[in-house]
Design brief:
The protein is mostly helical. The protein contains six helices and no strands. The protein is elongated and about 50 Å long.
Length: about 180
């Protein structure tokens, strides 16, 4: 099927024109690349790579996850009928991501268990990205008009920026982000 034959193409084009879908996809790719780099080079360079990069991974994941939840799942989707199940599934995945971060925060980076938990976090991030890049994007392409897409994108970017600033302050825990 060509792009012009795709019934979702007009909505998808509108959402892309507003820049929402590429923005979200780019953020997910950046986080995934940082996690892959960290896992790959930790095996070579050792625990110092983990100590150096994990705070950035944590901060980026929390800011992205919470901003997306506020802008999209609590904001745009809210309790829309057919999307309610999808919204609940996505929120549950974001909650799982935060639980995995809390577990990592409680472990010593030098522990072999820590690396296994980081790998489990990476799997959660990949599963969530797949869900959002397929089912969520399909719903957005059908239902999101350009103005709504711009509003969701603006809310997401503003909230993410504020969260990144708060999470950059020393000594803040997960609840603060």
């Amino acid at each position: 099927m060509t792009h012009s034959d795709d019934p979702a193409a007009p909505g998808l084009a509108r959402a892309r024109d507003a820049g929402l879908l590429p923005t979200l996809a780019s953020d997910r790719r950046d986080i995934a690349a940082l996690m892959a780099y960290t896992l790959e080079y930790a095996a070579i360079a050792g625990v110092e790579v983990l100590r150096e990069l994990y705070p950035t991974i944590r901060k980026e994941l929390l800011a992205h996850s919470r901003a997306l939840r506020k802008a999209l799942y609590d904001g745009f989707f809210g309790d829309r009928g057919p999307q309610c199940e999808l919204t609940l599934q996505c929120i549950a995945e974001h909650d799982a991501l935060e639980r995995r971060l809390r577990r990592l925060d409680q472990l010593d980076v030098e522990s072999p268990l820590w690396m296994r938990k980081l790998q489990a976090l990476e799997r959660t991030v990949k599963r969530l990205a797949e869900l959002e890049e397929t089912r969520v994007s399909a719903v957005l392409s059908e239902e999101l008009d350009p103005e709504s897409a711009r509003r969701v994108k603006r809310c997401y970017l503003e909230d993410k920026r504020e969260r990144l600033e708060r999470l950059s302050r020393p000594g803040l825990d997960l609840a603060a982000g």
